[in-house]
Each structure stands twice: as structure tokens, then as C-alpha cells.
Design a protein that fits this description.
heterodimer, A: alpha+beta, two-stranded antiparallel sheet, 4 helices, B: alpha+beta, 32 helices, 26 strands, elongated
């Protein structure tokens, strides 16, 4: 099986999906990211990232119920998979281990 | 409220391009964002929405360019054909009926197609066939203004066309009529048909010269032979420059050999071409006709210059008579408005009748008629397929239900069933090709043609594929729609209940089948009836044991007396006479006659027969009044004539014997006066279906062309003929003894009617066979379906007879209905067919009765087998099977 990697924005979206556990759908993810990053994010970019994550098997999706404010369309909720979680863990460990090797340099 | 809806156009665009599995999520998210923004800034929200939609327009979100649903067509059809094949194998009996019927239908259609193709390809062997024509002499009847015409024409017409219209005609060829001639080389004599014609004929007909060139006929003492003729006469020797003699008079040198002209050409009967000038030098009478505008005895063929149309040439030569006939003679014929007309080669064969100055009718009628019959027979075979597959639809209903339930669309089911009919038709087509190849010899003999399957011709294969496709559609389209329209929920539940009228289309189709069959049967019977009627016609003389000898040698005429006495002395011949015409053909007519009490408007045209005094005894004619010619009256050869009954009626005479009849010349001057010495009963010499022409018989031995020999009826012809031949070759050693039996010759006159009768008989037979096959299939199906019902009825005490009656009744009713439809149709068509015969039978009433009864009997026989089999089955067996 091919080992997939995660792009930077994809990683952010996956982190958000994990953070919003069970409540992660397009608009929620968008708003969460905009708040965290403090800048405008395009909804289409979020969708592209979600599709890619799902294709790579890091998240899975299900449809929710019909809501009025969405013009009768169902929400699509994303949940992180075990594979996604371990991917995030590996990434995190990798970064931390590298980070720890940074010598104490003072920029003062 | 309406205002907070996202912009319509952007949404539509999104829905158009976005893939369906993403659409709901994207649309939902966009709408949610839009609504949130709309509360604060409606306009911005709209723009943002549109902009976002545009940003989705990228490969990840686009619909696939190929249809979302993409079946694998190859394996799909492979599976259809496999299932179709298994179905055929599973129901061998029904498959055999469908395929067998279609094979018969396609075979008939193929034979008819080949026949029609052959008819239409007539005369196309010649490269210039579009430019070749025969020049006809036509006239308009002043009273009825009917245009009539004939191919015999005056000598000077040819000279005129040649000299005055060279820019219109490439060739104008004067010719004598194709006739039998004797070719002799050394001691061998052969009878061959030859055409005496001007030399350009070789080039005009674009003959393939194997030896010699297109100039080979320019020498007056030359002859050009067909390859087969050259081979019979000279074997493998080179025929060029060998000399042969024609009719023991004309000694000529072979200058060329051409490839035999294929059978479906007008000139195919010609076995050698000889120069016109040769013929002219041996026929003194014709030499004086170069400027004779009165005598119409010759035949002229013409080929147009390239680029000239028939219409243009016709328009130019129309007034040829008016311009060239001397005034004093033209005045006497002016009221008939005579004109010359070109009859194009491509109409010679199919349009033998002449109507209103244009070729029309004739064989083309039969070509169309049989074309239609062919389509109908094929239709009958298709009906079998339709009926059997719809009747047995119950067996396929579950399959249709499951296919539909698992997502098959109606159009897919239709293509499935069509591919099954395609399979069946292809199968039948291959079998019928084999059948055509097998039967083509027999068919060729029947229709007197050289037809082969043109397997090497790509057009044939295109037509064949077209034929398969059309037939598949004809046979398969209704069952396909019928079967694919089942409701899956109903058929899967097993409640496939048909209404009362479900079988109605099937019944209608059976009625169509039997209507066509019955029409064909009645038609055939009437054609045969008409042939028989012509055969039974009283012909006014006795043809039996009468032989006609071609007096193809000049010595015949000089030694006629000696020949007669020698022949009579053999004891096998009762009498000998000579005549200017055969007994089966009148080839000479003359107008311009006067008698007492003649209606001045009457055209006065009579058929002319020049005979010797024993003619009456030879043919055994019946004298109604007066006396026969006799050698004892010396004046008989000068001014006595015998006329027939029709002539008496035509002339309106009460006491014809002793009356005078005066011959007028072309200017109306009195030529010669004859006295009627006898009246004979009409002799049917031409078509047995035409009225007998008013005929005058002259005592004139000099004009003899045919020797008529009556063999003693008590003596076998096989014994008599060698003796006769021995006498002829003793008296006239140079002659080629060539004879025909008059009754056989006469029988040929029925050949066209017989061909039509035989063909329609065969088609009728096949139509009945195909229809009965279908009926047999339906009956066996109905019997199988009602097995339980029959079992219960039997248990309750029904007799075999009542069960048989119950099962057969439905079918017999249908056949009776079709008889009632068929009788008026057949009556209408056959009545109009009969109208073209002057001597015709009435349509006898019993024909309808016989055909109807016959159809019912055949139906009962077909159906009864199944009905009785079902009726005598032991109910225990039929009821316990569950």
C-alpha cells in the first residue's frame, strides 16, 4: 500500500476534523480555521482538502439530518480514522523530535 | 423571504458542472455561508456565492466527461447473445419453428431479390446501353387519338437519319430480323440464330472481340461468330479466314469472334452477326425499297452521340416523315400524324407494352408484383416470430422482472430482445443462403435464367446486412417493446394476468398471415384457370402430328412439287403444304382494301397468309361456306381468296361467298380484285388470349417460307421423322432439315402465364407452410398452457372430441375471418389481371369455396395434432405435476 503524505493545509484541516470531533462539516471547519488562523479561508479549498483526506483514508464521512438553513441540504460530517490519527501522531512526533534537536540559541 | 435564496444562475451552473456525489455537500455548505452573510450584506453575499461557485470549477469537482453510468457494451451484448442462445436451445421446438419459418421467408425473399436484380440488369452488358435505341414508327389514331407504334420501319428512314442528323447519331444501323439460319462448313450443318446488320453493331454493343476488331463486319462477305458458335463449328482450330456458307446461299469468311453475350441481354440470342449488305444482295425484293416510304419491313437500331439525350434526339427527328415523304403519298397518311421515335434500350425488356406513345407496363408489373409478394412472405415469417415470442412471454417475464429490479432500463431490455431477434435472423439468413445455393439450379430452370448468388459483390453483402437488420427489426421490435413493458413488481409477485384482449394483436397477425396465404392461393388458382381456359380454346384446326419445316434453302421452293409427291409416297405423311407464315405466328398484315358496302371510316387491315392448295387438308380447317382452294380451278391462284369468320364479321358481309375484295395501292388506286370463294372457322395462330385477326388466305406458292407436313396420325412420329428427313435430304441435298412440332411451338405461348402460375404457386405454398408452422407453434403453446385445465375437464367428464373442439375452435374462427377478408382482395386483383386478356375466363365461384374449405382443413390438420395430443393425455400426469 502506498504511503500517503499530508500537505500543510490538509494537515490543518485534518487537525480541525479531529478537534471538532463528530461536529466537523464544511462550514464548521471553515469557521474554526478562520478563527484560529485569523485570516479568510476559501470554502472550496477546504472542500478540496477534505476530499483528498478522505481519499487517502485519513477521514471518513457520513450525512447528517436535513436542516432548514442549508436549503434542505444535508450536512456531511467528517470523522478522523485510526489511520488519520496515527498519521497526525507521527507528524507530531517527527516535528517534536526535530524541534528538540534545535540547539539553544539565543537571539537576544 | 425569497430574497435570502442564493442566486439562481450560479446555483444552476454549479449543478450543471459539479459531480453528483459532491453536489449536496457543496451546495449545502455554500447555502449556509450565504445565509449567514446575507443577513449583514445581501449584495456581497450574492457576489461571494457566485465567486465561490466559480472557484469550484476545477477538475476535482467536475462531472466526468464520460457518462456517469458507463456499461461495458461488448460484454453486455455478449451476455445478451449468450442468454439468447441458451433460450433457443432450451426451447428447441419453438426455435425451430421461428428459424425454419424465417429461413423459408428469407429464401423466398432472396430468390425474388435476385430475380428482380436480374430483370433490372437486363441489357446492361453493353457499355453504351443508355445511348442505344430502336427506331419505331408511330402514328396517332385520328378518332381515338391513341398512339400506336411498331418496330418495323421503312428503309429510307435509316438513310435519312444517317445523312441529316449526324450530330445526333453515332450509329444508325439498318438490319433484318434475327432469325434461324443454317451455317455450313464442309459437310457439317448447324442451325444458328443470326442478325444481318450494318457493321457498326460490334462497336455499338461494345462486344468483347476475342478475334478480329470492330471493323470486322465491314467487308460484305464476312461473318462474326460468337465464341460458342465458333467452337461448335471449328473446334479448337482458328476460325479466322475460314469460309462458311449461310443458308447454303451466301459464302462468307469468318473475320471475327466475340465473347458470348450473357443471357440477360436482348442480343444474347444472336449467335452470329453478318453484314446487312450481304443480306440485301441476296434479297432482291428489298433492294427496291431504298426510297419506298410505304413498305415497313425493316428494323433500325441507333446509338446517340455522347452527350445527346433521347428526348433531344426524339424532338429533332419527330417530323422526319413530314419532311421527307413525297407529298402525294404523305397526303394519304397525314391524318395518322406518323412520326418516328427512339425506344431506349433500357426499356426494351421491362416495358414491353406501348401506351400513349411511351413504353409502359409489361414485365415491370410482374417485377413489382413479385417484389411485393416477397416482402409479404417475409412478413409472414416475421409474424411467426412475433407471435411465438409474445405468446411465450410468461416464460421470460421473471427474467424481465429481475433485470428491471436490478436496475436495467427499458431501452436496455429492448436492445436485449432485439439482439435476440438479430441472432435468430442471422441464423436463418445463413441457412437460407445455403438453401439458395442449393436450389439455384432448380430455380434457374423454373424462371429460365442464369442466376447465381453474387458472393463476390460487395453490394450484395451490404444489401444482405441491411436485409438482416430490417428483418430483425420487423420481427423483434414488437416483442421487445411488449416484453420490456412488464412491471417488475407484478411479474415478480407472479400475478401476470392478461386482460381479455391481450391475445388480440396475436389474433390479428394470424388473420394477416392467412389472408395473405389465401389471396395467394386464390390468385394461383385463377392463373392456372386462365391457362387452362386458353388451352381448351377451340382453335379451329388440328395441330397434332403436324411439323413445320423451315424452308431455309432456295431449292425448297423450286422442288416443292417433287418433294410433296415423294413425301406422300413414303406412306407416313398424309399431306404436305407450304405457307408464308408458321401456324403459330402471323407476320404479315396489309391495309388498303375495298369491298361493297364497306364502312368508309374503316381502316381495313387484314392479316395475310399465302398458302398452297393443300394447306386446308394439312391443318384440317373447317369450311363454313364455299369451297377450298383446288388445283382444278386454274383461276384460284390468280383471284380466289378464302377468308376467316372474323374477316366476315369485320367486313359486315351477309353472304360472303362470291363477293369481291379489291386490293388498293398506297395511293388508293385499285390494284387487283379478288373473289371470296370460301369462309373458314377462325384459326388461333397468335396468342391464345387474343381475338383472332381478320385474315385473308391467298393461293400463292411463291411466297412460301414454311413447309407444313402432316404425319399420318396412325404412325408414330419417331418412325415417320427419319423417313421424312431421308426424303428431304434426297430431294434437296443442300438443305438443313430443321423442324418443329406445331403443338409444341404453340405450347410455348403459355410460357409467361405458366411462369407466373408456377411462381405464385410456389409462393402460395410457402406462405401456407410458414403460416401453418406458426399456427402449429401457437397451438402447441396453448395446449401446453392449458394442460391443467384440460386435466380437470377430463376428470369432470369431458370427452376427447369436446376438448379437441374447444382447442381448435379459436384458430378455425381466425382462418374463416381471413378467408372473408381475402376473397374480395383476391377477386379485385385477379379481375384486373384478367382484364388484359381479350379471351379470358370468368372467376368461378367455386374457387373461393374450395380455397376457404382447404384453408380450414389445413388449419384443422395443423391444430388437431396438438389438440388431440393434449386431449388424450392422462389427467393424472397433468394434474400431479406441480
Amino acid at each position: 500500500m502506498k504511503q500517503y503524505s499530508l500537505g500543510e493545509f490538509e494537515e490543518l484541516v485534518l487537525l480541525t476534523v479531529a478537534a471538532l470531533h463528530d461536529e466537523a462539516y464544511g462550514v464548521a471547519i471553515l469557521e474554526f480555521l478562520e478563527e484560529k488562523l485569523g485570516k479568510k479561508v476559501s470554502i472550496s479549498a477546504v472542500h478540496v482538502a477534505l476530499k483528498r483526506i478522505e481519499d487517502k483514508g485519513f477521514a471518513k464521512s457520513r450525512f447528517g439530518g436535513i436542516t432548514e438553513e442549508r436549503g434542505g441540504r444535508r450536512k456531511k460530517f467528517y470523522v478522523i480514522t485510526l489511520l488519520g490519527k496515527s498519521m497526525l501522531d507521527t507528524q507530531h512526533e517527527l516535528r517534536t523530535s526535530i524541534y528538540k534537536q534545535i540547539p539553544e540559541i539565543s537571539f537576544g | 423571504m425569497k430574497k435570502d435564496l442564493p442566486p439562481d444562475r450560479a446555483l444552476k451552473f454549479l449543478r450543471w458542472f459539479c459531480r453528483e456525489d459532491y453536489l449536496e455537500e457543496i451546495e449545502g455548505d455554500l447555502t449556509e455561508i450565504f445565509k449567514k452573510q446575507h443577513e449583514s450584506a445581501p449584495r456581497t453575499a450574492k457576489w461571494r456565492f457566485a465567486w465561490s461557485v466559480i472557484r469550484y470549477f476545477r477538475p476535482e469537482f467536475l462531472k466526468p466527461f464520460k457518462k456517469n453510468y458507463q456499461p461495458d457494451y461488448v460484454s453486455m451484448y455478449k451476455s445478451y447473445l449468450k442468454i439468447g442462445w441458451r433460450n433457443l436451445l432450451k426451447n428447441k421446438g419453438y426455435s425451430l419453428i421461428s428459424i425454419g419459418g424465417l429461413t423459408l421467408g428469407l429464401t423466398v425473399a432472396m430468390f425474388i431479390g435476385l430475380w428482380i436484380y436480374d430483370e433490372f440488369s437486363f441489357n446492361k452488358y453493353h457499355k453504351n446501353y443508355k445511348d442505344i435505341a430502336q427506331v419505331w414508327s408511330c402514328s396517332i389514331d385520328p378518332e381515338t387519338s391513341i398512339i400506336s407504334g411498331g418496330r418495323s420501319i421503312q428503309y429510307p428512314v435509316s438513310t435519312n437519319l444517317k445523312n441529316n442528323y449526324p450530330q445526333y447519331f453515332k450509329h444508325v444501323l439498318l438490319s433484318w430480323w434475327v432469325g434461324d439460319n443454317t451455317l455450313s462448313s464442309a459437310d457439317k450443318k448447324f442451325k444458328r440464330r443470326g442478325e444481318f446488320i450494318e457493321g457498326g453493331v460490334l462497336e455499338m454493343l461494345s462486344l468483347k472481340m476475342l478475334k478480329g476488331s470492330y471493323e470486322s463486319l465491314n467487308d460484305p462477305y464476312s461473318v462474326v461468330l460468337s465464341k460458342s458458335t465458333a467452337e461448335t463449328i471449328f473446334g479448337h482450330d482458328d476460325p479466322i479466314n475460314k469460309s462458311i456458307s449461310i443458308d447454303n446461299r451466301m459464302v462468307v469468311v469468318v473475320t471475327g469472334v466475340y465473347e458470348d453475350i450473357p443471357r440477360n441481354n436482348h442480343f444474347s440470342e444472336v449467335q452470329f452477326f453478318a453484314p446487312w449488305s450481304l443480306w440485301l444482295s441476296f434479297n432482291n425484293w428489298a433492294q427496291g425499297k431504298e426510297a419506298d416510304w410505304y413498305n415497313q419491313a425493316f428494323s433500325i437500331y441507333a446509338q446517340l452521340q455522347p452527350g445527346i439525350t433521347m428526348e433531344a434526339a426524339n424532338a429533332v427527328i419527330k417530323d422526319l416523315y413530314q419532311k421527307n415523304v413525297p407529298d402525294d403519298y404523305y397526303r394519304t397518311i397525314e391524318k395518322y400524324k406518323p412520326f418516328v421515335q427512339l425506344i431506349p434500350m433500357n426499356t426494351w425488356h421491362l416495358y414491353s407494352e406501348f401506351e400513349n406513345g411511351k413504353p409502359s407496363g409489361g414485365r415491370i408489373t410482374y417485377v413489382w408484383l413479385f417484389g411485393i409478394v416477397g416482402v409479404f412472405v417475409l412478413l409472414l415469417a416475421c409474424i411467426n416470430f412475433i407471435n411465438l415470442s409474445t405468446a411465450r412471454s410468461e416464460n421470460r417475464a421473471r427474467e424481465v422482472g429481475i433485470r428491471k429490479a436490478t436496475g436495467s432500463g427499458k431501452s436496455q431490455l429492448i436492445s436485449q430482445f432485439l439482439s435476440e431477434s438479430f441472432l435468430v435472423v442471422t441464423f436463418a439468413f445463413i441457412m437460407s443462403m445455403a438453401l439458395v445455393a442449393l436450389l439455384s439450379n432448380w430455380f434457374n430452370e423454373l424462371v429460365d435464367k442464369d442466376i447465381v448468388l453474387p458472393i463476390g459483390n460487395p453490394v450484395f453483402w451490404i444489401v444482405a446486412i441491411l436485409c438482416i437488420v430490417v428483418t430483425s427489426f420487423m420481427a423483434g421490435i414488437y416483442p421487445a417493446f411488449y416484453l420490456s413493458s412488464f412491471h417488475p413488481d407484478k411479474v415478480l409477485k407472479g400475478v401476470l394476468r392478461y386482460g381479455r384482449f391481450a391475445a388480440l394483436p396475436r389474433k390479428v397477425l394470424v388473420v394477416v398471415q392467412f389472408t395473405v396465404s389465401v389471396v395467394l392461393i386464390i390468385g394461383t388458382l385463377i392463373v392456372y384457370q386462365q391457362i387452362q381456359y386458353g388451352r381448351n380454346r377451340s382453335i379451329g384446326y388440328d395441330r397434332s402430328t403436324l411439323i413445320t419445316v423451315d424452308m431455309n434453302d432456295p431449292d425448297y421452293k423450286y422442288k416443292l412439287g417433287a418433294l410433296r409427291s415423294e413425301l406422300v409416297r413414303t406412306g407416313v405423311v398424309s399431306e404436305v403444304a407450304a405457307s408464308s407464315t408458321r401456324l403459330t405466328h402471323v407476320n404479315n398484315t396489309k391495309n388498303g382494301w375495298e369491298w361493297q358496302g364497306k364502312d368508309p371510316s374503316l381502316d381495313a387491315e387484314f392479316a395475310i397468309c399465302n398458302i398452297t392448295h393443300c394447306f386446308g387438308k394439312v391443318v384440317g380447317w373447317e369450311l363454313l361456306a364455299g369451297r377450298d382452294f383446288s388445283n382444278e380451278f386454274s383461276g384460284d391462284s390468280l383471284y380466289s381468296i378464302i377468308i376467316n369468320e372474323s374477316a366476315v364479321k369485320y367486313m359486315g358481309l351477309k353472304n360472303p361467298v362470291g363477293q369481291q375484295l379489291t386490293d388498293l395501292d398506297e395511293f388508293g388506286h385499285r390494284n387487283w380484285t379478288f373473289i371470296i370463294i370460301g369462309v373458314v372457322k377462325d384459326m388461333v395462330m397468335e396468342s391464345p388470349y387474343d381475338l383472332v385477326k381478320p385474315t385473308l388466305y391467298f393461293f400463292n406458292a411463291n411466297a412460301s417460307r414454311w413447309l407444313l407436313i402432316k404425319i399420318d396420325p396412325a404412325i408414330n412420329a419417331n418412325v415417320a421423322l427419319p423417313k421424312i428427313e431421308a426424303v428431304v435430304s434426297k430431294v434437296i441435298p443442300s438443305a438443313f432439315f430443321d423442324y418443329t412440332f406445331a403443338d409444341e411451338e404453340y405450347a410455348q405461348k403459355f410460357s409467361q402465364e405458366e411462369l407466373i402460375g408456377n411462381l405464385s404457386g410456389i409462393f402460395a405454398l410457402l406462405a401456407v407452410l410458414i403460416s401453418c408452422l406458426g399456427l402449429f407453434g401457437l397451438a402447441s403453446y396453448v395446449a401446453a398452457q392449458r394442460t391443467k385445465e384440460i386435466g380437470i375437464r377430463k376428470v369432470m367428464g369431458a370427452s376427447v372430441f369436446s376438448l379437441w373442439r374447444m382447442l381448435s375452435k379459436d384458430f378455425v374462427v381466425l382462418v374463416i375471418i381471413s378467408c372473408f377478408i381475402a376473397v374480395p382482395i383476391a377477386y379485385y386483383f385477379m379481375n384486373s389481371w384478367l382484364q388484359k386478356y381479350q379471351y379470358r375466363t370468368e372467376i368461378p365461384w367455386w374457387i373461393n369455396l374450395v380455397t376457404g374449405t382447404g384453408a380450414v382443413v389445413i388449419t384443422l390438420l395443423t391444430v388437431s395434432f396438438q389438440a388431440i395430443r393434449a386431449a388424450i393425455m392422462n389427467p393424472v400426469n397433468s394434474l400431479k405435476s406441480e
